[in-house]
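Hi D.,

Good news: the full-assembly prediction came through. Inputs first.
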Amino acid sequence: MIDLYLAAAEGAEPHNPIIPLWQEIVVGSVAFAVLCFVLIKFVFPQMEKTFQARVDAIEGGLKRAETAQAEANQLLEQYKTQLAEARTEAARIRDEARADAEGIRQDVLAKAREESDRIIAAGNEQLAAQRESIVRELRSEVGTLAVDLAGKIVGEALADEARTRGTVERFINDLDSAGRR
Amino acid sequence: MTGQSIVLAADVPFPPSVEDFYLPSIYPWGQHDLWFTKITVLVWVAVAAIIVFFLMSYRKPQLVPTKKQWLAESIYGFVRNNIAVDMIGPQGVRFAPYLTTLFMFILVNNFFGILPLVQLSPMSHIAFPAVLAAITYVMFIWVGIKKHGIAYFVHAVKPNAPVGILPLLIPIEIFSNFLVRPFSLAVRLFANMFAGHMLLLVFTLGGFAMINANALLAPISLLSWVLTIALTFLEFMVICLQAYVFTVLTASYVQGSLADEH
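Then the structure:
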């Protein structure tokens, strides 16, 4: 192989490295032209397109994020307002309820007092009425008893006048004193 | 073991010469011309690899990129933002596709210089850098004419300087802008790759040459091969740097053509 190569080299005149071989110029031009054609036509425009799409995607994403952020802020503000309103409302309702409760308590108390007064009054009345009727009954009974007793005593006295005289006198005296009283 | 001894015993040519860069054709039937050599095959392989990589990773682009898509986008984004837009300004975006293609083409072809089992960069043949430099040359002049009309040539060669010194400056500007630029572009890339390959050859073959000359030189041979590995890392830096420099200079020339004031 080396012999062959040396023979070939010896056969030709020595090469000058600074003089280009025209065959290689042709090969280089064609090869590079093919490379340029394919890459410049098919690959790099695609890349530029992808870069642009990426930029769009990122910018679009940023814009969307901004919008979402603004929306969220607005919602937050709204919720805060609503919350504050609800708090005020709750405080108002609580105050009202407290006032109502106080009123009801007063009413109940008043009613209870009235009721107790009424019950006491009714009791008193009843007591008085009963006392009256008892007194009335007692009076009539005492009269009857007195008459009975008097009858008995008068009957006995006929048998033993001397013995009972003292007793009757004493009874009468008692009656007198009771009636005077 | 036997393979190694055969290699060690092989009669390696030393010192390496320019002819080491001109490999024979690799037609299976032994025909010889310059259309189908290791160099030209590598160029096609590079083109195919770049196309396949970009088409595969960008077949279904998504907003949230996959790993491959991210890699492809990073390459384009790097050239677009750090070279095209940085050098040319906002209107540089329309040059970004070409600049990225240029960058990738040079980078991959350069990289063959240190790719194990390949280890020869097509860019070490001046034809390829020359083609690229010619495209840059035509491009920046075309962009200038489109922007300023024929007045571009006045723009390009007339610096903002006192009238008295113009007769001195204008020839220099013509020389540097329209004669030196394409050559410096092409030769810078070519010479770096050429020298890099030559350096690796010297250290690799030198190791064999020494061990063949005297077995006692074996440690130095070893050192020579270790240095080859170190130099390969250096080469990697040069490879990336030269691809970057070529792209940046192209962008810079385009920027000069677009500038309102020189």
